[in-house]
Amino acid sequence: MIPVKKLTYALSIFCIAIIGCSGGSKLNGTTKGWKKLFNGKDVNDWFVKINHHETGVNFGNTFRVQDGIIQIRYDRYSDFNDQFGHLYYKTPYSHYHLKFEYRFVGKLQKGAPDYTLLNSGVMFHSQDPRTMLKDQDWPISVEMQLLGGLGDGKSRPTGNMCSPGTDVVYQGEVSRDHCISSSSKTYDGDQWVKGELIVLGNKLIKHIINGDTVLQYSKPTVGGGVANGYDPKYKKDGTPLSNGFIALQSEGQPVDFRNIEIKELPGNK
């Protein structure tokens, strides 16, 4: 007979293996173990932090809820003025499976950088937004970058990795690139796209788009550049990133998010 503790441990490892092999598709038909991060009504369980504003100030009502959707809008802005923003769920996570849907809508806000056209993202392993300074543009975090096709017939994959203030190991070595492209298809127009993240602390991270695993890497650590205006005490290069906050990004392109759910995996703290 197998001891109960050893059996429980074996089953936990087996569950992680199944998640990794299935790309998350086996879980889409069940709600067991899943928690809604967005209740479809409001963002009272989320923090706002927008560059040039203090934490908690939802400038221009950038993040709003309508018809069960988190909408990111700029109709109350004049010039964008590098007011990059993020909406953070209140609880940090370490080991989990995250699911969400997104779509791009509308036009790029006046003054937003060209590279933010049909561009958004989901940040994770992020620093606490309450530790960010008023004029900090991006949180020290890892990003699952979301891109839309430009309608020109050229490839523009989504589900990429970007690393503001961080480094990751990709294909056996620390990546020298700020962003790593995924193997995903290009998604044009305003169609809803399903994204998933499987995060196992500091060990393994998988990006999934519409059921297909499109990128994986490991060992995120504090390091690298791109993030600006941060408090130096929160950027100790070389520090492993094994947990942190999850956030939706605002970079000047109107975008919608819905059906945001999380399932904690063994090892979550």
TrEMBL record:
Looking at the record, the residues that make up the 3-keto-alpha-glucoside-1,2-lyase/3-keto-2-hydroxy-glucal hydratase domain are 33-263
PROSITE patterns with a match to the protein in the record? PROKAR_LIPOPROTEIN
Q: Which domain of life is it from?
A: Bacteria
One Pfam family in the UniProt entry: 3keto-disac_hyd
This chain belongs to the protein called: DUF1080 domain-containing protein
Q: Which organism is it from?
A: Mucilaginibacter defluvii
